[in-house]
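Quick one before lunch.
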Amino acid sequence: MQPSVIETIGNTPLIRLRRASEETGCEIYGKAEFMNPGQSVKDRAGLFIIRDAERRGLLSPGGVIVEGTAGNTGIGLTVVAKALGYRTVIVIPETQSQEKKDALRVLGAELIEVPAVPYRNPNNYVKVSGRLAEALARSEPNGAIWANQFDNVANRNGHRETTAQEIWRQTEGRVDGFVCAVGTGGTLAGVAEGLRARKPDIKIALADPMGAALYSYYTSGELKAEGSSITEGIGQGRVTANLEGFRPDFSYQIPDSEALPIIFSLVQEEGLCLGGSTGINIAGAIRLAREMGPGHTIVTVLCDYGTRYQSKLFNPAFLREKGLPVPDWMEKAVTIPV
Ligand code: PMP
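Model of the 4'-deoxy-4'-aminopyridoxal-5'-phosphate complex:
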């Protein structure tokens, strides 16, 4: 029997990152989450959240799933929802990449763009999606639920039960360290929980972009953010329910100037075109490798594919506008006017 679309979510390959491994004397591997059908790590969260709601009897055929998302969770939810006979209503900050908004539209999500305002503002996309779900639960004939990826621990539990176990099997138990960035914290806290249960002395590290508050939280106890990042889908300002009870062994704050050259070198030297959060993750893996010393096996996450950011990360005019260096080859290869 060949698999359904849903059965192709997860069980992604673990790819050896050649340059990062050679530079550190460690084996650095990336979990190829961009190979999921919705092309990101968030297909897993979409699937776990919908299956959990079904188990609780909260979803009926034709029901609506509402979510606030930087895009990838909306894509993951929509792929799964369409395959199972549900609808999605997705609230996205207008600052997110056009490619992700287009992907949501062509997948059949009902898309609502809102201004990007901080979480404390009642018009923040997450809060708008929560209110909308409440209203739709009353008016929709087949009901509506709020996926609530940030505080719904079905997200974290799913990573504990699948992503962590896959990494354990794929490294044959040799994994010594795991590191990634946080959007909801589902990936980091879930994989940490799953791997720590198998190997209590494994080292878990947070790779935080500038503009996020968790690096400061885990190093000084204070939620404080400084600077900014062009990465999308990561950079958390609070301790979400998915992060409750979790603590990393190490925390790193990674500027875009460290992450972007890694992304560009992967394109040119390894045939991998990946999104900005993956650059933060691999920079974090390199820092953890240096911290632990040569000979260790370190795993991180290749979150999504680079074409999702063609108009930003791979656009010389955008990079220049942000004061970031533009690699020579990109000037020749990409000509998108802005
Ligand atoms: N990278 C990208 C591109 C994402 O969209 C997300 C999810 N928002 C993450 C990383 C972080 O994953 P998580 O929500 O599990 O922390």
